Amino acid sequence: MTVLDFARRKRAGEPIVMITAYDALFAGLVDAAGVDAILVGDSVATALGGEGTTLSATVEQMIYHGRMAARGASRALVVVDMPFMSYQVSPRDAVRNGGRILKETGAGAVKLEGGAEVAPAVEALVTAGVPVMGHLGFTPQAVHQLGGPRVQARAQGALEKLIRDARALEKAGAFAVVLSMMPGRIAQKVTHVLSIPTIGFGAGPLCDGQVLVLTDMLGLSEADGAGGPKRYAELGAEVRETVARYAQEVRSGLYPGAGQG
Ligand code: KIV
Prior knowledge:
This protein has 11 helices and 8 strands.
């Protein structure tokens, strides 16, 4: 799967399946399950690192996780998030950091957050040979500015701004854009005006593809009870029960039994 396949998929009306993974083990599993793209999201900071926001993620951490994920994937396109403040200061900074991420991980693209204001960074990256995925709507790196994780683009005039931002990213050379946490009809309109594919995250069914955070969809994270993304399994409960069974067997002398290691 390459960035060119993304455009082909949109033209053919074939949905793009993306999911996060942060290491070789899970990247290998989701790749074998047939996903099209693996996002090494800066959500690694919250999903695995126990942080409250994604702001602490560093270029070094993204390279470390990106390299592991790229090693695990053989077919899916691996996209690595550019962390907070690695591309906002200047296009030059963006190229230096994005170039390092691509070079040192073996990933096929980077993702960054924001609209028209980051278009010069996107253009500089693409000109330097670094494919870029955009990210609009709820952008977790702006969590403090946005007053928390909440549905975006509800206000009067929000659609027009979103379309301006999406077009700026497309013109700057982005090959796709994540539309995050917005009403489905808004995401549908943005999807309609773009020639590059949109990937929805809590943005309704009418985007060109969908992305989920692996730890949420597997039920490894705590359920927020607020009707968040679909949980396809409850592996967290299964891990707790399995480890509790092991602990109980050690304490009762059942493990190791005769002939067991
Ligand atoms: O970091 C991440 O996992 C993301 C997804 C929520 C799209 O950006």
